[in-house]
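SAMPLE LOG
Freezer: B-3
Tube label: C17
Construct: single chain, 430 aa
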Amino acid sequence: MHTEQIKRRRSRPGIFLRALALTAGLLALNSCSTLNLLGRDVRAMDQDTRLVGRITGSQSKVVKVFVLKKGSGAEGYTVADCGSPNGMGDFAFLLPGRKPYFVAAVQGGGERLSLYGGHEMREIPPGKDSQATPLLLNLARSINRKDPAVRPLDHALESWDPGQAGTSGAVAIGCGELASLDDAAFDDEAGLKGLWAPVTSVKRHGMGVYFLEPYDPKKIPVLFVHGLGGTARCWQPLIDSLDHRRYQAWVYSYPSGLPLEAVGKALGDLTDRLQKHYGFRRLHVVAHSMGGLVARRAVQRIGNEIGGRYVSSLTTISTPWNGVLFTVVGTLGLPAPVPAWFDLRPNSRFIRQVLEDPLPVPHLLISTDKARFNITLPCRNDGTVAVASQLDPRAVSQAAATCVVHEDHTRVLEVAETKRALAGFLRRES
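STRUCTURE (predicted):
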């Protein structure tokens, strides 16, 4: 018998045992309320209406954005939800059911309205993908709230009770808002909620790019992207190690259970909004674990699709470039799998696409290999991700530099060797 055949036969029991262990763990989880919440969130992603939009056309302050639906009989309209836009004018809602909605914004002082549709209410059809084409409310085309043409709308706004049921679908979109790593949104519990209940998490904590200090045009932004089940707080040691005379730290916070294409594209679009607003010419992106896939997609979105040339570098740490094995069992063994797991399956469509598309910036690829026994992983691992996945040839061949840090998957973010490697690469590419 050939040696290669012997190796293949010997490897099968190991693969089987790892899969068996994963299946047992997932079956244990299946009895928990966690999976009930996950199932509800996954159904919501399939069934809810997503409204994403932007205020344009004026510097007038928008106090509230209202989502309305047709009332019964002669009632005209009723308020379905209400929220406030961010400083860039972005707003988003996740609303139950696939049904038609209408959107209106109340300007400062409350006397004028801006409507989706201009001077008349335009219905947003069920299933419209406003994530691909955001809804635009032009403040320059506002209308007086007491105009007879919008009397039914004004009546609905006057009758609205902020405490009524069903007004919890507004999503806070961060685009340059100030935050602290001590915020509750960056607690470990919030990170786990973002994995197992991504829709619930985004309604509670929002998502977006946040500044940790007021913007300084003299400093180069360094944007940090966390991984699966994590939060921006994991970056505290590396952020503390930055040369703060030269760099300013930004963080991307997102529910890590969401599909990676969606969160990667959102990161690219939000970063580009910030660039167009502030005009910075350089920006570095640093990502950990699954966040490396998200960050690479964002950098490709900016450089290859939008045409931005301001991203200076990408640094990834312990990224599973060819996915992780447990997601295969997870997507097959759970009634409602975590959506991100489909993208993390080895050689998934998302992984193939993100590695086939060219990377338009220099890339420092940091891998980790301090293994510990884990029946779900090959012998060479960092406790969470197989070394073979971290060093997938498709990623390594496109990297400007590679570095091995002999630490485990999480401690790598704290050690001096990682801090030196990152500092040197940022200096080189700045």
